[in-house]
Amino acid sequence: MKTTTLDGGSVEILTEMLDNLKMRLRGQVIFEGGPGYDESRTVWNAMIDKKPSIVVRCLGSADVIECVKFAKEYSLLLSIKGGGHNIAGLATTDGGMMLDMSLMRGIWVDSKEKIAYAQAGCLLGDLDRETQLTGLAPVLGFISTTGIAGLTLGGGFGYLTRRWGWTSDNIASMNLVTAEGRLVRASNDENEDLFWGLRGGGGNFGIVTSIDYLLYPVGPEIIGGMVVWPISEAPGVFELYRNLAGNAPYELSLGMIIRRAPGVPWLPKEVHGQLIVAILACYSGNPEEGVKVVAPIKSFGRSIGDIMTRRPYLQMQSLLDSTQPKSRRNYWKSEYLSGIESALGEKLITHAAKITSPHSSMILFQIEGALNNMEDGFSATGNRNAQYVLTQAGSWEKEEDDNLNIEWAREAWNDMKSFSTGGNYINFQTEDEGSERMEAALGKGLQRLVSIKAKWDPGNMFRSNRNIKPD
Ligand SMILES: Cc1cc2nc3c(=O)[nH]c(=O)nc-3n(C[C@H](O)[C@H](O)[C@H](O)COP(=O)(O)OP(=O)(O)OC[C@H]3O[C@@H](n4cnc5c(N)ncnc54)[C@H](O)[C@@H]3O)c2cc1C
Predict the structure, then answer these.
(1) What is the pLDDT of residue 102?
(2) From ligand 1's centre to the CA of 85, what distance in Å?
(3) Which has fewest Cβ within 10 Å: 48, 212, 282, 320?
């Protein structure tokens, strides 16, 4: 079978070579047409439709080591799939070898030490479920089906970021398989350079097999949800958001979303498909205090829907899942902002009026807090001046609508990027974003990442990622 090599050529992998690999593995090897192949090869963004030649569903670090050795022996192009949520589709390649980590989902929670040990194929929801059993939580993102590995290696933010920083700021250690096929541990006491690079530098240095997360007391109940108004109220809602976010305690995370109303039962039928503006909030401290903190949102203007209430933290962590299903076409543009200028409101409303797809949205989310208080070089994620993430998230169903929706996201981004810190979130970059955007995302840390790459992966074996070249 022809398999793509690192230099873009191909090599014939014979049946006996594959038999030899299979004998060394616990996990399954699958090929096009075989059961599970399509499930493994497809990713969240339907714009990416690639077909790897060999897929291995690893069942542990030993399998990963055997795969690295095999890929190395034949110089195969290797990709790693965590949750498959990367919008650029970096988990898969045409004709290469893919390691699907989705069966490595073991978790062990040490509630005394407040650390969760998670295998790298876990999804966010797996980790939240297990840690909430003892009233603890790691710092993760909003959609429970996202993979922990891609999110953490690229930075990571969510409702707890204001209190504790980027996800990658809250890691005790990681295990990974290097380009030499060695299992090594990275922490502040062991392979410190690698540990620094792994926290923001993506999958450039090896295949992570487990991640140890610092945990914090959260929940089991919080105050969270959203309040929705018609778009006519957007100027007032934007000012409310700006004022509240400017003075909010770190326990409160606030987002503002503009989109067309989904057909959910808690919004009146007559607004379905119409433009709306919403404030998304999660108060992760004491719920009694939270009720007071979110009161100005609930009482503002004439809202048309309100699901902001006391609820389990676990429920909050999957509240938006249904808005982000696998297999739609998606194109995003995103920037970090260091504050919100009032002029941004007008621009948001102007570009919202041009949204055609019922699934697209503009999202402004506050991350200001702990991450700004850490020193610049704390981890490779950097961007210590970022206080908000602004994202134009184009999402639609049909290929023939690609141009229209991509243009919408680009036009809005072009018009608003003057508000940016100059940095952007590497995990939100699309397939067409090049080295300039990567440099902007990694900033001053990039030079250090290049030297870490040169030490740990001098042959650039791990290149199906936001690739940092070793020279
Ligand atoms: C609907 C949606 C919601 C999102 N919400 C948030 C959010 O709230 N907060 C946030 O910070 N981000 C969010 N993201 C962005 C998300 O962090 C990135 O898409 C991330 O890449 C997803 O990780 P994954 O494991 O699912 O991705 P994958 O596509 O599986 O992998 C992404 C990259 O990581 C590499 N990788 C994966 N596993 C490993 C491993 N074990 N070892 C080495 N490299 C590995 C892959 O090779 C690839 O380069 C969201 C994305 C989507 C699509």
Answers:
(1) 98
(2) 5
(3) 320
Model-level pTM? 0.97
Return the ligand 1 atom nearest residue 80 CA.
47
**Are 98 and 41 contacting, i.e. CB atoms less than 8 angstroms apart?**
yes
| Phi, psi values for residue 68, rounded to 5° | -65, -45
Percent of the chain with pLDDT over 70: 100
Above pLDDT 90, what percent of the chain? 99
Q: pLDDT digits over 220-265, tens only?
A: 999 999 999 999 999 999 999 999 999 999 999 999 999 999 999 9
- For the cut 90, the answer to whether the pLDDT of residue 471 exceeds it is no
Contact (Cβ atoms closer than 8 angstroms) between residue 357 and residue 251: no
What the block records as the tokens of 394 is 């184009």
Q: From ligand 1's centre to the CA of 134, what distance in Å?
A: 26
Q: Which residues, 6 or more positions from 286, have their beta carbon under 8 angstroms from its beta carbon?
A: none
Residue linked to tokens 């070579």 = 17
- Token pair of 272 as six digits: 């379905």
User: What is the spatial distance between Cα 199 and Cα 191, in angstroms, rounded to a whole number?
Assistant: 13
CA distance linking residue 327 with residue 46, whole number of Å: 5
Q: What is the pLDDT of residue 327?
A: 87
Q: Which two tokens stand for residue 264?
A: 């959910």
Ligand 1 binding pocket includes 68 (Cβ within 6 Å): no
Structure confidence at residue 80 (pLDDT): 98
Closest CA to 100 of 204, 25, 46, 156: 25
**Does the CB atom of residue 304 touch ligand 1 within 6 A?**
no
Q: Which residues sit opposite 363 in a β-bridge?
A: 257, 391
pLDDT of 55 higher than 90: yes
CB distance 384 to ligand 1 below 6 Å: no
Task: Give the C-alpha separation, 52 to 4, whole Å.
Answer: 9
29, 22 Cβ separation under 8 angstroms: yes
In 3D space, the residue among 219, 213, 251, 221 whose CA is nearest the CA of residue 113 turns out to be 213
Ligand 1 centroid to Cα of residue 153, in Å, is 8
Q: What distance in angstroms lies between residue 91's CA and the mean position of ligand 1's atoms?
A: 9
Gap between the Cα atoms of 396 and 418, Å rounded: 27
Find the radius of gyration of the CA atoms of the chain: 22
Ligand 1 contact, 394 CB (< 6 A) = no
Q: Is residue 64 lining ligand 1, measured as CB closer than 6 Å?
A: no
